[in-house]
Design a protein that fits this description.
- The complex is a heterodimer of chains A (68) and B (131).
- Chain A is built from two helices and two strands.
- By secondary structure, chain A is of the alpha+beta class.
- Chain A has two domains: 28 residues; 38 residues, no CATH class.
- Chain A starts with a helix and ends with a helix.
- The model of chain A has no long low-confidence stretch (mean pLDDT 87).
- Chain B has a single domain, classed as 2-Layer Sandwich (Beta-Lactamase).
- Chain B is 35% helix and 25% strand.
- In chain B, strand 3 and strand 4 form a beta hairpin.
- Chain B starts with a helix and ends in a 20-residue tail after the last helix.
- Classes of the chains: A alpha+beta (68), B alpha+beta (131).
- Chains A and B meet through strand 1 and helix 2 of A and helix 2 and strand 3 of B.
- Strand 1 of chain A pairs antiparallel with strand 3 of chain B, so a sheet runs across the interface.
């Protein structure tokens, strides 16, 4: 009886962990912009920042041009 | 290697790249995987605007060498090396490092001088001497 309860608890825990992992990995990824400079430095701007809001529309334009 | 050969090699080795356009420092299209010339020109113009706007994020002499704009619909990559650049589009969530590597290889390939064809030797066989 005790073994059965333990197995059930293990199964439930695994199911919960799997669901959480799936939900996190399939969560909406944010648009972003990564810029690399000649001196080896890199800056990243995520959606919502003024820099990304300025450049991401250009990227969408480029994608639309390439796919038309 | 010319631009069209470099782009052909690029699309052959990288299945992630949907479209790619090579351009020079003046923004002129040197080669494209797109059949629509207007679309190629627009892609290059947009790449130039992206580079220019991104350069304004840093003060100083250092220039932007490459950038990636990642959106829900796909990614846009721009790589610049010397007097040339390449802009490419991919599906969402590409393998970023691999795409940059392939684009740099494409730029290097396009910058290579075409190998001169080897001339055939036209040496005459030694004449037989009548004895």
């Amino acid at each position: 009886m005790k073994r059965k309860a333990l197995a059930l608890a293990g199964f439930a825990t695994g199911l919960l962990a799997g669901t959480l992992f799936y939900r996190r990995s399939s969560a909406r990824r944010r648009d972003r912009l990564d810029v690399y400079f000649a001196d080896g430095s890199m800056v990243s701007f995520v959606e919502g920042s003024p820099e990304a809001e300025r450049l991401l529309p250009l990227a969408r334009q480029a994608l639309a041009a390439a796919r038309r | 290697m010319d631009a069209s050969q470099a782009l052909a090699d690029l699309t052959e080795i990288s299945s992630q790249i949907e479209a790619a356009v090579l351009f020079d420092v003046a923004g002129a299209v040197q080669g494209s995987t797109l059949t629509d010339a207007d679309a190629s020109a627009e892609l290059v113009r947009t790449a130039g605007e992206l580079l220019e706007a991104a350069a304004a994020f840093r003060s100083g002499e250092t220039e932007v060498t490459q950038l990636e704009a990642s959106t829900q619909d796909g990614s846009v990559f721009v790589v610049r090396d010397g007097g040339r650049g390449v802009v490419a589009t991919t599906a969402p969530e590409p393998t970023v490092g691999l795409v940059f590597y392939d684009l740099k290889s494409c730029l290097r390939g396009a910058a290579e001088e075409p190998k001169p064809k080897r001339r055939r030797r036209t040496t005459k066989p030694p004449e037989e001497t009548a004895s």
